Automatic annotation (TrEMBL):
Keywords: Amino-acid biosynthesis, Aminotransferase, Arginine biosynthesis, Cytoplasm, Pyridoxal phosphate, Transferase. The lineage of its organism: Bacteria, Bacillati, Bacillota, Clostridia, Eubacteriales. This is Acetylornithine aminotransferase. Its EC number is 2.6.1.11. Pyridoxal 5'-phosphate binds at residues 105-106, 138, 223-226, 281. It comes from Candidatus Faecalibacterium faecigallinarum.
Amino acid sequence: MDSEKVIARDNNYVLHTYNRNPIVLEKGHGVHAYGPEGQNYLDFTSGIGVNSLGYCDLEWAEAVSRQAHKLQHTSNLYYTAPCSKLAKALCRRTGMSKVFFGNSGAEANEGAIKAARKYSHDRYGDGRSTVITLVNSFHGRTLATLTATGQAGFHQYFGPFNEGFAYAPAGDIDTLTKLVDEHTCAIMLELVQGEGGVVALDPLFVQEVRSLCDEKDLCLIVDEVQTGVGRTGTFLACEQYNLRPDIVTLAKGLGGGLPIGAVLVNDKIAAGMGPGTHGSTFGGNPVVCAGANVVLGRLDERFLAAVREHGAQLRAGLEKLPHVTEVSGLGLMLGVQFEDGIQAADVLAACRERGLLVLTAKTRLRLLPPLVVTAHDIERALVILDEVLCGMDPLRP
């Protein structure tokens, strides 16, 4: 495989909806990805938080391979053991009642919106369907989840956008409360706004939202597509907020590298979602679920303690770097704000040239290393970041 040929072919035939990095990845192991000409990258993106166990974890790969050799797909007209095993593990792990499986975070959030509106319709009738989300939130790229996303930049080109959404600033319970009226059915939160800058919500605000939902009988939806499955140091970020939502969505790291989304609901929401209310041809795919079962089996308390330890190590190291003004986020989901004149995109490009892959989120650098990252990996990444930042002049035009 030749990198130039791969990139040229991709540019010729793949729709240009992505600003790709000018590198080709051929294989990977653990925290390292490799290019066709021998390039070695320390990957602190994990496929945007997807490769929770790193690249090609042996137990995960063998489980996926075994299942692919037995039964690759059935549809949801039939039962499979990997799907029911995963459902049981997720419900017991989260305390939720039932789960619906889809293929992505956007699909999971679509399912959550439908489930909340169905509950409200069954209980109150038509006209109670508005979902309130937060400014700077991100919930997906389907038309409904784009509309749910509280960023004006996403509300272009594809209109008309769906009705039934409103937006409140994060942390402003007074404005949020004023938005609630007879048409409101749910409030939807990311506990750490990932694409919005890796900003964690204030715990008091979150509890005030829960109380408001209880008072008005609104469904509280928590989008844990990026924060869930151990990313923040607990299985759900909800645990760190002492929060019991009505609906939780998962995706990204759940499959360990294969596409999956999950909508977890409590008893009151589950009661309204009967046959025909939702569906997905590929949801609960046995190969994907086999991989996800390995991920869940690995995330015991010892594993999560290591995530918290390494998250604290990475945060402390980042805070000491030159030109860094703030480090935000939780666990191994961190954002780095720089002094004026230092652009996150420039830092990303310079890191890539030195063999470190990172992400951006608005004006911040975003770090989402695999959950299996080691102390040595973190120190190596910090050395590269230090080299990059020491070579940058914030006053340079």
